[in-house]
Amino acid sequence: MNILLTAISFSLLLASTDVPAAVLDPGIQHFASGKGPTRLLHVDSAAKPSGTGSASKPFQKISEAIAKATPGTGIRIHPGTYPGGTWISKLSGTAQAPIWIGGVPGKARPVISGGREGLHLSQVRYLVLHDLEVQKASANGINCDDGGNRSNANATRFVLFERLYIHDIGGTGNQDGLKLSGVNDYWVLSSRFQRCGGRGSGSGIDHVGCHRGLLAGNRFEDLSGNAIQCKGGSEDIEIRANTLIRPGARGINLGGSTGFQYFRPPLSKTQTNFEAKNIRVFANVFVGGNTPTAFVSSVDCIVAQNTIVDPKTWTLRILQETKTSQGYTFVSSSKGRFLNNIVWFSRKQLRSDVNVGGGTLPKTF
Questions:
Q1: How do 117-122 and 140-145 pair as beta strands?
Q2: Model confidence, pTM
């Protein structure tokens, strides 16, 4: 009976496109919990150019509302299609009064389509991005970064991404659905990522030097390189209760390979450096893909209590892609934990159970 119920559950999981990946823990708290806008600005792509942002005279462009937003503002983007390429820079709410940008509650998501990037957020704080569909950008769906201010941990901080649908991004290489660089104290919840990147590269969510994040209740489908990648000095990120269907070459890449100039914080010549540290992968469902998880130039990471179905090549990889050079010492991939996971696989299909590369310390796992 248990086997039958499991098979039925997986059939429903694969067949559905809108069933949430998981019921989120109601205890998840963030800076916007229990808060709402005190002022609304409306945007409607069908409006006349002379709008004021009121419900009766909405702005026509998202950028017009952003220019008028102050702490406590909720920007309500009405259903319709909007061009990509909107840049959001140095927009800050406060802990008591965040800023919300997203669709109208109870209505269809607005669609942001085309451009190099659908949206670019730079040096933002206490910002909620919610209920948007982003598609057909040539580089990244949404890019959120610290404006290159790699030494300032407060440059982009306290950002919530919720109920987003990002799909059909790039298609030719290293293009990402959600690109995060130097983002600290952030949440990605109840969102969906589909067909991002191409030719074995690109991610649903790509982290470069991000810290203290929670990714929960999201769904990833038909990715090329990774569903999720955490590299460039990323630390203290929890990836919990997500569903990954055909997530690409490496479903979750705990680490990776990053150019030295992109690490956050900047690399040290007096301390040991790492691509990823303390990345926690709990209670996710993986279906397909070459390998569900890879520990790559990482330390103290854990993969536990996940369900892994039909990996194509390996169950697990331990690799070293960033090596000591130019006066910078890098940790050997070490102290990883792979615990209490259920793995359902075809022996004849796997190349090996675990793939261990040179320069690693597998005995510490």
A1: parallel
A2: 0.94
- Cis ω on the peptide bond leading into residue 110 (within 30° of 0)? no
- The tens-digit pLDDT sequence of the chain (365 residues) is 344 444 444 544 554 444 343 445 668 999 999 999 999 999 999 999 999 999 999 999 999 999 999 999 999 999 999 999 999 999 999 999 999 999 999 999 999 999 999 999 999 999 999 999 999 999 999 999 999 999 999 999 999 999 999 999 999 999 999 999 999 999 999 999 999 999 999 999 999 999 999 999 999 999 999 999 999 999 999 999 999 999 999 999 999 999 999 999 999 999 999 999 999 999 999 999 999 999 999 999 999 999 999 999 999 999 999 999 999 999 999 999 999 999 999 999 999 999 999 999 999 99
Residue count of the chain: 365
- CA separation for the pair 71, 187 (Å, rounded): 19
End-to-end CA distance of the chain: 35
C-alpha neighbours within 13 Å on the C-beta side of residue 316: 18
Quote the tokens at residue 161: 């991404």
Question: Among all chains, which residue has been given the structure tokens 């990833």?
Answer: 220
CB 256 within 8 A of CB 279: no
238: tokens are 């929890």
Distance CA 360, CA 41 (A): 53
Place of tokens 């040991």: 272
